[in-house]
Every structure is written in structure tokens, then in C-alpha cells.
Amino acid sequence: MNKDELKIRTKNFAHRCIKLAVNLPRNYLGNHIKEQLIRSSTSVAANYRAACVAQSKAAFIAKLSIVIEEADETEFWMEFIIDEQLKEKTLVEPLKNEAHELASIFISSRKTAQKNK
Q1: Closest alpha carbon to 117 in 51, 56, 49
Q2: I need a labelling partner for 81 at 20 to 30 A (CA). Which of 20, 39, 93, 104 fits?
Q3: What is the pLDDT of residue 22?
Q4: Are 65 and 113 in contact (CB under 8 A)?
Q5: Are residues 40 and 19 in contact, defined by beta-carbon separation less than 8 angstroms?
Q6: Exposed/middle/buried for 1, CB within 10 Å: 0-12, 13-18, 19+?
Q7: Are residues 106 and 67 in contact, defined by beta-carbon separation less than 8 angstroms?
Q8: For the chain, what are the domain ranges?
Q9: Which stretches of the chain are DSSP H helices?
Q10: CA-to-CA distance for 44 and 67, rounded, in angstroms?
């Protein structure tokens, strides 16, 4: 998968997470998770774009590290949604898996970049 395809994939991921977030219950917990999920998922896309225009290999690696952390956090919030039964597991699971898969892709990319540093 090339960088342009990953830009599209991470942006679509953020859109899908936002759609999930805005459909969470309108209570204290739902509102809290909504904000966190939107923040972390959009950060995946935004920081990947930033990594693509990094000025140095070190900056690229640093941005990828942020992408990995944010993808993992997004996965956490989806696990929490499932645990708290805020949405049906069958609705959340595919998106949770996408967060995990994106984190795995970027971990692999970071390893390659560190090796080629």
C-alpha cells in the first residue's frame, strides 16, 4: 500500500470513527468517549499526512510514533464502547480491527524506517 492509499485509508478511518462517535448515547460517558474517539481517530489521519511531508527521517519516525499511539488509543476507546455496551459489538468490531491493522502497518513502517536510518 503506497502513501497516497494510506492517506485515503486513514482519512476514511477517521470519517467512520466520527460517524460512530456522533451516534453514541448523549450522556456523560457517551460524550466523553465521543470527544476522545474523534480526537484520536482524526489524529491518526492528520499525523500520517504530517509524516508524509516530514523534513527528516527522524521527524518521519517521530510522526509515525504518534500515529501508532493514536491508532492504539482509538482501538482502546472502541474496546471501551463494547465493554460498556454503548453500541453493538458487531457494529464496532470492524472499526476496532481497522484501528489495530493501521497500528500494525505503521509499526512495521517505523521499524523499516529505523532500520534504514
Answers
A1: 56
A2: 104
A3: 98
A4: no
A5: no
A6: exposed
A7: yes
A8: 3-115
A9: 3-22, 28-52, 57-83, 89-115
A10: 5
Query: In angstroms, rounded to a whole number, what is the distance separating the alpha carbons of residues 59 and 37?
Result: 25
Count how many residues are written for the chain.
117
Inform me whether the pLDDT recorded for 117 exceeds 90.
Answer: no
CB 12 within 8 A of CB 6: no
pLDDT at residue 1 tops 90 = no
CATH code, 3-115 = 1.20.1440.60
Q: At 8, which amino acid appears?
A: I
Residue holding cell 491508532?
71
Grid coordinates representing 89 are: 459489538
